[in-house]
Design goal:
This protein is α/β, with parallel strands linked by helices and 407 residues long. It folds into 2 domains: 12-40 and 290-406, Beta Barrel (Lyase, Ornithine Decarboxylase, Chain A, domain 1), CATH 2.40.37.10; 69-284, Alanine racemase (TIM Barrel). The radius of gyration is 23 Å and the shape is elongated. Helix content is 27%, strand content 25%. Bound molecules: pyridoxal-5'-phosphate. Pyridoxal-5'-phosphate binds at residues 64, 66-67, 85, 87, 108, 202, 205-206, 241-244, 283-287, 386. Keywords: Pyridoxal phosphate. Its cofactor is pyridoxal 5'-phosphate. Pfam families: Orn_Arg_deC_N, Orn_DAP_Arg_deC. InterPro entries: Ala_racemase/Decarboxylase_C (IPR009006), DCO2ase_PEP1 (IPR017530), De-COase2_C (IPR022643), De-COase2_CS (IPR022657), De-COase2_N (IPR022644), Orn/DAP/Arg_de-COase (IPR000183), Orn_de-COase (IPR002433), PLP-binding_barrel (IPR029066).
C-alpha cells in the first residue's frame, strides 16, 4: 500500500457524493457528455484570492496564464486579479479573446520572436526582457512601428528559491539578464526614451517553505535597490515573482502565506528610499488555481493481474502528465485520488489506477486504498488545476480529448 496526497480542504460531499460547485461530480459529467473531464471550481479560486488579499495588502496580484489558460477561467480571473503575466504571444491572443487585455500585463519568456515582440508592442504590454539582444530587437521593432515600448528587465539573480521544485537563479540561466549586467541595460533603455517599467525576478516554483520564500523576497527587494542605485533610477514596478506551492503528495504541508505576508510587510516597510514609490507585484499561477481543479475519469475495466487489482480508466497521462509522475518529478508519488460516488467512505481495497495508454508510464495512482469502484464508476484526481491539460501530451495515442468546465 502507498499513500495518496492530501485533498484540498475545500471539497465537500452530499450523501457520499463529491460536490464540485454545488453539483455532484456525476451530475456534471452527465451534463458535460461524459469523461474524461476537468472541472475547475471557481469558489476555490476566489477563496485563494481572498487569502492573498488578507495576507498581502497593497501588493498587486498577477495571474500567470500558463498555469491554466482555459478561457472561462481566464475570464473569471480577470475580475479577481490586478493583472496578468504571459509566457507567449498565444497567451496574449487568449487574453484578448476574453477581453482581459485592459489589465496591466507583462510578457516574459526566452526566445520571443520578432512577431511575438511586435504583438506585445501593439498590445502595449510590458515586455520583460530576457537578454540584451532581445532589447536590441525590441528597440528596432518599436522604431519601425513608431511605438514607445514598455519594458522591464528580468534579472537572473545571484540566488535561487531554496526548496522549490524547480530552482532557477544563482547559476547560468536562459532566463533573465545576469544581475551585474542589469544596471547598464536599464540605462540604455531609459536613454533610448522607452517606458522603463522596472524589474522582474522569478526565482523558482512550487515552494512550500515560507522561510525560503521570505528569504528570496528579501533578497529580491535588496537586489532591486542595489540595481536602482547603480542605474541611478527608481523602478516604477518590481515584480517579485511567486513560486508559491501547493500540497500534492503525502506529508506535504500547505504554504503559510500569512507568514510570508507578515515578513514582506516588514521588508517593504524597511525598503530603500529609491523604492519608496515602487509598486510591488506578485505573479502566481499554481497557488491560485491548482487546488481548484479535479480530473474525472471513468473506470472502463477492472482486472486482477497476479494478485494486483487494476482500475483501467478512460483518462491518462495524455491529459494529466504530472499525476503520472513524468513532469519533472524525480520520484513518482501519488496525487490525491478518490471515488467521487463514495467520497469520504472508508477505503475497502488496494488498487492501482491506470490510464488507457499502451505504456507502463500511464499510472494515475499506484497501490492506493480506495472504496470499491466498478466499471462505469468515476475516479477523481485532485489538485490538477495548474499545469494539467495544457502541460500534457494531448496528441499522444490520438485518444479522445478531455472536456473542461468551470463551475
Ligand atoms: C511559470 C511562471 C510563473 C508561475 O509560476 P507558478 O509556480 O505557477 O506560480 C510566474 N512567473 C513566471 C515568469 C513564470 O515563468
Amino acid at each position: 500500500m502507498k499513500a495518496a496526497g492530501p485533498f484540498p480542504p475545500d471539497f465537500r460531499a452530499d450523501s457520499g457524493h463529491l460536490l464540485l460547485g454545488d453539483r455532484t461530480a456525476a451530475g456534471l459529467v452527465k451534463e458535460a457528455g461524459g469523461t474524461p473531464l476537468f472541472v475547475y471550481d471557481r469558489s476555490v479560486v476566489a477563496e485563494r484570492v481572498r487569502r492573498f488579499r488578507a495576507a498581502f495588502p497593497g501588493v498587486a496580484l498577477h495571474y500567470a496564464v500558463k498555469a491554466n489558460p482555459f478561457g472561462p477561467l481566464l475570464a473569471y480571473m480577470a475580475g479577481l486579479v490586478d493583472g496578468f503575466d504571459l509566457a507567449s504571444a498565444g497567451e496574449l491572443d487568449m487574453l484578448q479573446a476574453i477581453g482581459g487585455d485592459g489589465l496591466p500585463t507583462s510578457f516574459a519568456g526566452p526566445g520571443k520572436t520578432d512577431d511575438d515582440l511586435a504583438a506585445g508592442l501593439a498590445a502595449a504590454v510590458t515586455i520583460n526582457l530576457e537578454s540584451e539582444a532581445e532589447w536590441q530587437r525590441l528597440h528596432r521593432l518599436a522604431a519601425r512601428d513608431s511605438r514607445r515600448p514598455k519594458v522591464a528587465v528580468r534579472i537572473n539573480p545571484p540566488f535561487g528559491l531554496k526548496g522549490s521544485g524547480m530552482k532557477m537563479g544563482g547559476l547560468a540561466s536562459p532566463f533573465g539578464v545576469d544581475h551585474d549586467r542589469v544596471p547598464t541595460l536599464v540605462r540604455r533603455i531609459i536613454d533610448s526614451g522607452a517606458d522603463w517599467r522596472g524589474l522582474h525576478v522569478y526565482a523558482g516554483s512550487q515552494s512550500l517553505s515560507s522561510d525560503a520564500i521570505i528569504e528570496s523576497q528579501r533578497a529580491t527587494v535588496a537586489l532591486a535597490a542595489e540595481i536602482a542605485g547603480a542605474a541611478g533610477a527608481s523602478p516604477p514596478e518590481v515584480n517579485l515573482g511567486g513560486g508559491f506551492g501547493i500540497p500534492y503528495f503525502p506529508g506535504d504541508q500547505p504554504l503559510d502565506v500569512r507568514a510570508v505576508g507578515e515578513a514582506l510587510k516588514e521588508t517593504l516597510a524597511n525598503r530603500h528610499a529609491l523604492l519608496r514609490d515602487t509598486k510591488f507585484i506578485l505573479e502566481l499561477g499554481r497557488w491560485l488555481v491548482g487546488e481548484a481543479g479535479v480530473y474525472l475519469t471513468s473506470v472502463v475495466d477492472r482486472k486482477v493481474s497476479r494478485g494486483k487489482t487494476y482500475l483501467v480508466t478512460d483518462g491518462g497521462l495524455q491529459h494529466m502528465l504530472a499525476a503520472s509522475g513524468n513532469f519533472g518529478q524525480l520520484l513518482r508519488r501519488n496525487y490525491p485520488v478518490a471515488v467521487p460516488g463514495k467520497f469520504g467512505s472508508e477505503p475497502e481495497e488496494e488498487v492501482t489506477v491506470v490510464g488507457c495508454l499502451c505504456t507502463p508510464l500511464d499510472l494515475l495512482a499506484d497501490e492506493v486504498m480506495l472504496p470499491r469502484a466498478e466499471v462505469g464508476d468515476l475516479v477523481a484526481i485532485f489538485s490538477v488545476g495548474a499545469y494539467g491539460l495544457t502541460a500534457s501530451p494531448q496528441a499522444f495515442l490520438s485518444m479522445a480529448a478531455a472536456g473542461e468546465v468551470l463551475v
